[in-house]
Amino acid sequence: MTSRGANALLSRAIRMETKLKSVLEASVLEIEDVSHQHAGHAAVKGSEGETHFNVRIVSPNFDGQNLVKRHRMVYDALADELQSGLHALSIVAKTPQEVAQNK
Amino acid sequence: MARLLSNIILKGIGGYPVANSARIISGSSYQNGMKYFSTVPNDPDTHEDFRPSSKLESHSLSLKDIVEQDVKDNPVMIYMKGVPDFPQCGFSSLAVRVLRHYNVPISARNILEDPEIKNAVKGFSSWPTFPQIFIKGEFIGGSDIILTMHQNGELKEKLKDIASSVEKSE
Lengths: 103, 170
Hints:
The structure holds two protein chains of two kinds.
Chain A: H1 4-8, H2 12-24, E1 28-33, E2 52-58, H3 67-77, H4 79-83, E3 88-94, H5 96-101
Chain B: H1 2-13, E1 22-25, H2 63-73, E2 76-80, E3 82-83, E4 86-87, H3 90-99, E5 106-110, H4 115-125, E6 132-135, E7 138-141, H5 143-152, H6 154-169
Parallel strand pairs in B: 1-5, 2-5
Antiparallel strand pairs in B: 2-6, 3-4, 6-7
C-alpha cells in the first residue's frame, strides 16, 4: 500500500484504473469522470469533484458471476476510493466471451 | 414458496389503491418509535390500512431490524436519494423510472434525510452506493442492474406476481 500522500497526487481515475487492472485483470477498461453531471447534487456538496464515474470493464474473472457479484467485485477493488469520497459508479461489467458474442 | 410470498403480499398491501404511486417511508426518531408516513399523491383513499404493516412502533428495534422489516414487508423497496416524485440523483431517478414501467407499488426511503438508515442499509446489503433496490426481500442491486434486468426481461419476470396480486386485490 502506498501512502495516502502519494495517492493524492494522482487523479482518482488513474488510481481506479490501476486497482481494477491489477485486482480484476481487466482486458478492457474505460473510466470516465462524470462528476460534473452531478455537481450540486445533494450528497456531493462540499466535496471537490471526482465523485461519479462511468466504468466499463471486461474481465475473465466475471465468468460465472451474476451482475450483483460482478458489481461487488468492482466495489471491493475500489473500497478505498469509496471510503474517500467516491459516491457512485455506473458499471458495465462483461466477460470477454460476452463481448465477443455481441459483436 | 411462491404461494407463501403472494399471501404475504396480499396481506401486506391488500387493496393498495394506486399501484403506480409510491409510498414514502420515513422515520426520524428511533428513540420515540418510528414514524411512518405513506403518501399516495392525489389519492383521497389513502388510509392507514395501506401503511406498511410492520411492528415499527416497538421501541427495541435496531436499525438493522428496521431495514429487515422494510424489505420483508414491502415487495418493492427502494432506498434512494430523494423521493420517487422528486429524486435528487440521476441514478435514483433512473431506478424509479424503470420500476414505474411495471404495475407495482413502490416503497421508498430517502436516505439523504436519514443518515443512520443509510449506513444500516449499506451494512445490510454490503453495497456501498445508492439507490438500492430490494424485491420480495431479495437484494437486486442499483440502477445499472435494474436497468439491465428491465432490458433483458428478468425484471418483468421478478415483478410478475406482485403486479398480478395487486390487480386481483383491486
